[in-house]
């Protein structure tokens, strides 16, 4: 009996991983050549209705290929697991490039020439993605034609992936991400694209009624006079400032006698002052337990109007107050529509407001002025394709749950038959 096995030569059908790797390598090289000589002019992607036409055309192409050309060797390969797996590898490579190289304008001639700073509109990425979606569509449509109850999970998984990917990539050009600068007491209806710096006139205006910043309590720290470095004490270097709080730092005992959240220096002391730019301050008493020497004085973090103030303990050490960290910042706004309707809203970080297909986020503010800022920056995002991305994700989740349920049911049935 012969142990000789038939040798599989390169390009003998069925094509496996090697042939698939060579095909996608060819697509990658072709894409880079096209990018060098015929770069896509757009930096945002294809917009409606052209992306919708492409999607419909892709679906029609998949149906025609599966119904009329399914015996073609290339189409058989497209519908194979080998093609799908290798395509995922190459898509991952392009996504890694996108993660490593910033997707913004660059002064690097090589990066600009190769289009590595605009991967989502890169010919290589689009070619590989097109072939991958075609492969995924063929595999899914084949299972739909040969429908069985056990295939529901597979169909949901693959159709969901096809829906989420195609909507996410083809819909990227329709995504609008705009910044809107606001100042208290003034309406604004002109937002701008932070990438292109182009201004966009909105069909509504936003009026900033009030902007609020909430801060955490400031902290005190010991610093070296010579270097200005903060000194650590068993891994801890910052102490929360509260009135009547006591701390021990090495040989020093710190007593916080007085604390003002908003203050101004009047003579030798700080007093509570409620006005713009009034910084927090604290009166400290610090005792050196080795020498029994006591130092009293005020410290302040300062502000955009006032200098900070530190307390010198000895020739080596001083105590400073850190700038209070921001807890949250909030914009209270009115949305003014052309029909005269007025909508009141409160925008907070991670708590966006939905309005007319826009999601309005709190982005930033005038950090130089801190909690006294009267300016706010909102981010407006509109993504008409996002619901389809969510639909695709939910389909994949449903498919995974179904396959898990069927797998458990199959195991139980087998165990029951064995009993």
Could you describe the 3D structure shown?
With 419 residues, the chain is an alpha+beta fold. 35% of the residues lie in helices and 29% in strands. It has helices spanning 17-37, 50-68, 73-78, 81-100, 109-114, 123-145, 152-170, 386-418, and strands spanning 176-183, 187-192, 199-215, 219-224, 239-240, 246-249, 252-260, 263-266, 269-272, 281-288, 294-300, 311-312, 317-321, 326-337, 342-348, 353-355, 358-365, 375-382. The longest helix is centred in the last third of the chain and has 33 residues, at 386-418. The relative contact order is 0.11. The model has no long low-confidence stretch (mean pLDDT 91).
Summarize the structure.
The chain is of the alpha+beta class and 419 residues long. The chain has 8 helices and 18 strands.
Topology:
Layout: H1 17-37, H2 50-68, H3 73-78, H4 81-100, H5 109-114, H6 123-145, H7 152-170, E1 176-183, E2 187-192, E3 199-215, E4 219-224, E5 239-240, E6 246-249, E7 252-260, E8 263-266, E9 269-272, E10 281-288, E11 294-300, E12 311-312, E13 317-321, E14 326-337, E15 342-348, E16 353-355, E17 358-365, E18 375-382, H8 386-418
Antiparallel strand pairs: 1-18, 2-3, 3-14, 4-5, 4-13, 6-7, 7-10, 8-9, 10-11, 12-13, 14-15, 16-17, 17-18
Oligomerization: single chain
Q: What is the helix fraction of residues, given as a range? A: 25-40%
How many helices? Answer: 8
Strand order of the largest sheet: 1-18-17-16
Query: Based on helices, strands and strand pairing, what is the structural class?
Result: alpha+beta
Q: Largest beta sheet, briefly?
A: 4 strands, antiparallel
Sketch the topology as an H/E string, one letter per element. Answer: HHHHHHHEEEEEEEEEEEEEEEEEEH
Please, what is the average pLDDT?
91
Query: DSSP strand (E) fraction?
Result: 25-35%
């Amino acid at each position: 009996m012969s142990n000789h096995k038939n040798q599989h030569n390169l390009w003998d059908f069925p094509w496996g991983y090697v042939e698939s790797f060579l095909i996608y390598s060819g697509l990658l090289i072709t894409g880079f050549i096209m990018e060098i000589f015929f770069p896509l002019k757009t930096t945002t992607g294809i917009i409606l209705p052209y992306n919708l036409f492409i999607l419909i055309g892709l679906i029609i192409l998949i149906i025609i290929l599966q119904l009329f050309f399914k015996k073609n060797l290339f189409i058989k390969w497209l519908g194979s697991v080998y093609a799908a797996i290798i395509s995922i590898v190459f898509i991952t490579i392009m996504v890694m490039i996108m993660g490593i190289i910033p997707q913004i304008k660059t002064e690097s001639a090589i990066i600009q020439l190769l289009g590595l700073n605009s991967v989502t509109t890169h010919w290589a990425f689009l070619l590989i993605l097109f072939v991958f979606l075609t492969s995924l569509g063929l595999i899914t449509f084949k299972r739909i034609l040969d429908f069985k109850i056990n295939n529901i999970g597979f169909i949901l998984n693959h159709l969901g992936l096809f829906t989420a990917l195609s909507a996410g990539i083809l819909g990227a050009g329709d995504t609008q991400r705009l910044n809107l600068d606001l100042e208290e007491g003034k309406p604004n209806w002109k937002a701008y694209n932070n990438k292109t710096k182009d201004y966009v006139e909105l069909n509504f205006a936003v009026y900033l009624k009030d902007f609020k910043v909430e801060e955490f309590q400031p902290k005190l720290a010991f610093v070296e006079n010579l270097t200005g470095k903060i000194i650590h004490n068993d891994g801890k270097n910052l102490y929360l400032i509260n009135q009547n709080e006591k701390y021990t730092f090495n040989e020093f005992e710190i007593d916080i006698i007085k604390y003002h959240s908003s203050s101004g220096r009047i003579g030798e002391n700080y007093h509570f002052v409620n006005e713009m730019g009034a910084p927090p301050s604290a009166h400290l008493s610090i005792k050196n337990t080795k020498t029994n020497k006591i130092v009293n004085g005020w410290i302040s973090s300062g502000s955009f109007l006032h200098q900070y103030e530190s307390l010198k303990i000895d020739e080596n050490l001083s105590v400073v107050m850190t700038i209070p960290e921001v807890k949250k910042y909030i914009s209270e706004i009115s949305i003014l529509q052309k029909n005269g309707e007025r909508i009141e809203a409160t925008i907070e970080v991670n708590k966006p407001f939905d309005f007319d297909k826009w999601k309005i986020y709190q982005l930033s503010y005038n950090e130089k002025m801190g909690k006294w800022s009267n300016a706010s920056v909102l981010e407006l995002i509109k993504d008409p394709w996002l619901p389809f991305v969510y639909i695709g994700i939910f389909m994949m989740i449903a498919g995974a749950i179904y396959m898990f349920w069927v797998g458990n049911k199959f195991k139980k049935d087998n165990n029951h038959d064995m009993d």
